[in-house]
Amino acid sequence: MNKKIKVEICCGSAEDAIEAWLGGADRVELCSSLFLGGLSPSLGSLLEVKAKSDIEVAVMLRPREGGFCYSESDFSVLMRDAELMMSHGADALVVGLLTSDGTVAKTRLKTLMSLTGDLPVCFHRAIDVVPDWRVALDVLMDLGVKRVLSSGQAVSAFEGRDTLREMIEYCGARVVVMPGAGIRNENVAELLDVTGASEIHLGGVSRVMSDSSTQHNLNLRFGNPNSPPENSYKRVDRALVKAFINSLP
Description:
This protein is α/β, with parallel strands linked by helices and 249 residues long. Helix content is 36%, strand content 18%. The chain is globular and about 55 Å long.
């Protein structure tokens, strides 16, 4: 394989995104709260990334955890965030909008697309819970979505590689289907060979950082008791990003 594979890194903070850029990533998906699957980042995060790097930034629009069927207030927040992120330099937006029956929320997505104009929109892994991905892709292509992030409706992209190949073949040149979830050095070559993907979405290129400020009471959790320890956090590591990119076939 000799084509250039575009690598997008999932980032939970501005510092993550800057590290991904220094490691040679082509694009970052800027989020917050990766433990919850990724929520909308702060405007300050976007401004910091744009000030400290020249990487392409796709900004997540997800106002809350727990699915993708939003209340009127949630959707209003999402639209306000879209306007703010666009006006402050976002290079793309990332969204997943579903109805209560799990199908694409066509009217709401059309409303968002009317705001974004030529700015690329990526439909994220909400595609992985729709009842019929072909029907969903037809809607997304008709509305002008540029990319779709998917694991092929499986736990990982590698496990869903056959479905991802079908998705890519189904869409042709109309939309980029970007595999994501569980992609590692040891499986990426076969994944790319099976799917024929031109872009991939990558997590798992982080190292654990320590924060000693909570050392005097390590039993406390300031969120859910099952949340990560308060004395550590993950940070994208530029060396791991670079090593992964250098390992691509």
